[in-house]
Amino acid sequence: MKTYSLKLECPVSDSFRCQKAANALDIDVKKKSVHNFSVKADLDSPFHVGLIVGASGSGKTTLCKSIFGEDCFSEYLNLEDPIIEQFPEDWTYEQCAKILTGVGLTAVPCWIRPAGTLSNGQRSRAEAALAISQTENQIVIDEWTSVVDRTVAKVMSHSLQKAARREDRSVILCACHYDIEEWLNPDWIIDCNKQTFEDRREQVKKKEKKNSGS
Known about the structure:
- With 214 residues, the protein is of the alpha/beta class.
- It is built from eight helices and seven strands.
- A five-stranded mixed sheet has the order 4-5-3-6-7. Strands 1-2 form a two-stranded antiparallel ribbon.
- Helix 5 (120-133) packs parallel to helix 6 (150-166).
- The longest helix is centred in the last third of the chain and has 17 residues, at 150-166.
- The protein starts with a strand and ends with a helix.
- 30% of the residues are buried.
- The mean pLDDT is 89.
């Protein structure tokens, strides 16, 4: 177990409106706004899916960068090209179509238009599809399912975790929604709101063994 700590701080404006707001909460505008975070976690043992969850501003992104590197977040989507053209060259059309429908991007016109013309929700699904298609051993994604409805979030999360386990890769997701825990079945969870770490690796192994009928 290692201790991961960070300190988020920024100055508070001393404008009239900020002073009024600060006074209502008895905040001293002459001091910096400070948020301290510390959690003990085992992130070195093998895993397939890790989840860092918490409200906006709780330190998810900063924590992830401090653990996995400043440039850890994976971005695969090229906005100029159609999504159908951005999968590995050796993939068949059928493979591309299967993975796109698997993340809830079922409208064929969305596959062949420049990705920059897609809505935010469609782009998120396209990003998820591309993430699943990668061969990297570790993938880190920020704002997972933050701009899609919960039905699509369920489909995306289930597809991604299945792919991670099937391909024996590690995926770390930052998210503000707690409902995806059920669909991701993560091996560990860092809750930035509670500043806690939960190791579920043994629980996940038992569940997978039960589902496989072993």
